[in-house]
């Protein structure tokens, strides 16, 4: 590991930059500036593809924009890192539901039920799927 003259690891400044960008990303989402947030989220993920918070946020933005296929791809990457994240799983299940992919939605719901058997959102989604069939 190399250090500069002041004993700092070169990766420290990169980490600080990423942290600043994540703060900016959250601020933009709060302000509902989703296009700008997507741009920053994508920049962060190009440098650090396994940044789980950002994967979730970017997937969530695509979900809100009704771009469910794009949302699912980010949710799947997020679930590779945090397999038991019920928030990601329910958004992924709802994305599948909106695409008419009921089998995949039900699979997500089953996984959530293993983790959180009394999850109310799962029950509601399963009822919607049943009435849509």
Name the descriptors.
133 residues, Serine Threonine Protein Phosphatase 5, Tetratricopeptide repeat, mainly alpha, elongated
Mean pLDDT: 91
Q: What is the total tally of β strands?
A: 0
Instruction: Describe the oligomeric state of these chains in a short phrase.
Output: single chain
- Helix tally equals 7
The CATH architecture classification is Alpha Horseshoe
Explained architecture:
- The protein has 133 residues and is mostly helical.
- The chain has one domain (10-132): Alpha Horseshoe (Serine Threonine Protein Phosphatase 5, Tetratricopeptide repeat).
- Helices cover 77% and strands 0% of the residues.
- It has helices at 10-30, 34-47, 52-64, 68-81, 86-98, 102-115, 120-132.
- α5 packs parallel to α7 (120-132) and α6 (102-115) packs antiparallel against α7.
- Mean pLDDT is 91; it is low at 1-5.
Summary, kept brief:
The chain has helices spanning 10-30, 34-47, 52-64, 68-81, 86-98, 102-115, 120-132. By secondary structure, the protein is an all-alpha fold.
List the helices and strands and how they pair.
Elements: H1 10-30, H2 34-47, H3 52-64, H4 68-81, H5 86-98, H6 102-115, H7 120-132
